[in-house]
Specification:
Elements lengths: L7 H26 L5 H11 L9 E7 L1 E17 L2 E4 L8 E4 L6 E2 L4 E5 L2 H51 L4 H47 L2 E3 L4 E6 L16 E5 L3 E8 L11 E6 L6 E12 L5 E7 L11 E17 L4 E3 L2 E8 L2 E13 L2 E6 L6 E3 L12 E5 L2 H7 L1
Parallel strand pairs: 1-20
Antiparallel strand pairs: 1-19, 2-10, 2-14, 3-9, 4-6, 5-8, 6-7, 8-9, 10-13, 11-12, 11-14, 12-13, 14-18, 15-16, 16-17, 17-18
C-alpha cells in the first residue's frame, strides 16, 4: 500500500504545532532558570495587566426624604341642587278667575308682595249689599231704641199713678178697683219695656251679624290678591290668565324658594359618616361652573339607606343667581387637615398587617411597619414608625425585600408624587 505525500497546508500546520511544543518546553525550562527574587515582581506585573474583578452594586432606586407637610383628606361627592325650603303658594278662595299675573319664574319677590289678582266683581257686589244692610240695621236699632224709651216712659207714668192711688185710697178718695187697674197698667208697661229691650237687642245682634259678614267679605276680597308668604325666588308658575282657581288642585299656582337658599343634596358612604360633621367646608362645582363655590355642611342625615349604605348630607351654598334647583353638582368635602410627617402615596404599601415602608439605611433596605393617618392630594400622613428626614423608597414595589442592597437616588417629594 503506497502512502500519499502530505499537502502543503498540512505541512505548514504540522510545523506550527511542533514549534509551539518546543517553545513551551523551552519556556518551562527557562522559568526554572529565573531567580526566585524576580518571580514576585513578574506576578504583580501580570496581575496589574489582568482585568479587575467587577464591584458588586445593588439595583438603583429613587428615594424620598420623610418631611413635614400639611395633609388635607377630602371626600368627593355628587348630588343635585335643591331648594332648602320650597313654599307652595295656592289660592285661599275658590271659584274665582285669575285676572292678572304680576311675576314669572326667576323673579325675586318680597314677603307680602302681590303675585296675582283674582276677579272681585261678585265679592264687591256682596260688600255693597252688606253696606246697605248695615245701614238698615242701624236704622232699625234707632227705631227700637226710641220705642224702648217710650215704653219706659209709660211704665214710669203707670208707676206714678199707682203711687197716687195708694195715697188716695187711705183717705177714701178712690176705690180699690182703681188701684188694681193702675197696678195692672204698671205690669203691662213693664212687660212692654222688656219686649222693647229684647227688640233692641235683636236689632243690635242683626247689626253685629251684618258686621261679621262684612269682615268675612273683606277677608275674601283680600284673598283675591295672591301674595308671597315669604321672600324668595319664584321657581315655578302654573297660574294662567282666565283660569278658575280651586284649592283642591294639587298643583300650586307658584313655587318659591324661601330666601333663595339652595343646598347640594348629596350622599356619603356610611364608613365616613362618623367623621362628617356640620360646618365642614365643601367646594361645590355645579354643572357649567368654571370654578367651585364655597359651601358648608348644614345637615347630616340621621339614617343610612339599608339598600345603598349611603347617608344624606345637605350642603348650604352661598347666594348666587346662577344656581338652579335640579341641576347636577359635584363637591369635595374637607374631612380633616393636619400637619405632620408625610410621604407620597406611592411610597407606602398596605397589607393584612397594615401599612409599611421600605427605609434605606446606607445601601440596605429595611422594611418597617408604620401607622398611616390622613390621605390626600397624593400624600399619606405617617403618624408612627418614621422619623423626619429618613430616606424611603419613593415607589415601593414587590421586587424589594428586607436586607436587599440598593443604590439610592434622591428625588423630591413633589417629583415622587407626580411620577406616581
Amino acid at each position: 500500500m503506497t502512502t500519499k505525500p502530505p499537502s502543503q497546508r498540512g505541512r505548514i500546520a504540522l510545523v506550527l504545532f511542533m514549534t509551539a511544543v518546543v517553545v513551551g518546553i523551552a519556556g518551562y525550562g527557562f522559568r526554572d532558570r529565573i531567580p526566585a527574587s524576580l518571580l514576585p515582581g513578574l506576578t504583580e506585573a501580570a496581575q496589574a495587566t489582568s482585568p479587575a474583578a467587577p464591584e458588586v452594586r445593588g439595583v438603583t432606586v429613587t428615594v424620598v426624604a420623610a418631611g413635614r407637610r400639611e395633609v388635607a383628606e377630602r371626600l368627593p361627592v355628587t348630588g343635585t341642587l335643591v331648594a332648602r325650603e320650597e313654599i307652595q303658594v295656592g289660592p285661599e278662595i275658590d271659584g274665582l278667575r285669575i285676572t292678572e299675573i304680576l311675576v314669572d319664574e326667576g323673579d325675586h319677590v318680597t314677603k307680602g308682595q302681590v303675585l296675582a289678582h283674582l276677579s272681585r266683581d261678585t265679592l264687591e257686589t256682596l260688600l255693597a249689599q252688606n253696606t246697605a244692610n248695615a245701614a238698615k240695621a242701624q236704622a232699625t236699632i234707632a227705631q227700637q231704641k226710641a220705642a224702648l224709651e217710650q215704653t219706659i216712659a209709660q211704665r214710669v207714668e203707670a208707676e206714678a199713678a199707682v203711687a197716687r192711688a195708694r195715697t188716695l185710697i187711705k183717705t177714701g178718695a178712690t176705690s180699690q178697683e182703681v188701684l188694681d187697674q193702675r197696678e195692672r197698667a204698671v205690669k203691662v208697661a213693664t212687660a212692654q219695656v222688656t219686649a222693647a229691650q229684647e227688640t233692641v237687642a235683636a236689632a243690635e245682634a242683626d247689626a253685629e251679624q251684618i258686621k261679621a259678614n262684612r269682615a268675612e267679605l273683606e277677608v275674601r276680597l283680600a284673598r283675591t290678591e295672591i301674595r308671597a308668604p315669604e321672600a324668595g325666588i319664584v321657581t315655578n308658575r302654573s297660574a294662567r290668565l282666565g283660569a278658575i282657581v280651586l284649592s283642591a288642585n294639587t298643583e300650586p299656582l307658584f313655587r318659591i324658594v324661601k330666601d333663595g337658599a339652595i343646598d347640594l343634596d348629596a350622599e356619603v358612604p356610611e364608613s365616613v359618616l362618623p367623621r362628617i360633621a356640620n360646618d365642614m367646608k365643601v367646594a361645590v362645582t355645579p354643572a357649567g361652573f368654571e370654578a367651585p363655590v364655597d359651601g358648608r355642611i348644614r345637615l347630616v342625615g340621621a339614617k343610612v339607606d339599608a339598600q345603598t349604605r349611603l347617608a344624606r348630607v345637605a350642603v348650604a351654598l352661598p347666594a348666587d343667581a346662577r344656581l338652579r334647583p335640579g341641576a347636577y353638582a359635584r363637591g369635595v368635602i374637607e374631612v380633616a387637615r393636619r400637619t405632620g410627617i408625610a410621604l407620597p402615596l406611592s411610597a407606602v404599601q398596605f397589607d393584612a398587617d397594615g401599612a409599611y415602608v421600605l427605609v434605606v439605611k446606607g445601601e440596605l433596605i429595611e422594611q418597617r411597619q408604620v401607622k398611616a393617618g390622613l390621605k390626600g392630594e397624593g400624600f399619606v400622613e405617617i403618624v408612627e414608625g418614621l422619623a423626619e428626614d429618613e430616606q424611603v423608597v419613593a415607589r415601593a414595589g414587590g421586587f424589594l425585600r428586607d436586607g436587599d442592597r440598593v443604590t439610592p437616588v434622591p428625588v423630591t417629594a413633589e417629583a415622587a408624587k407626580n411620577a406616581s
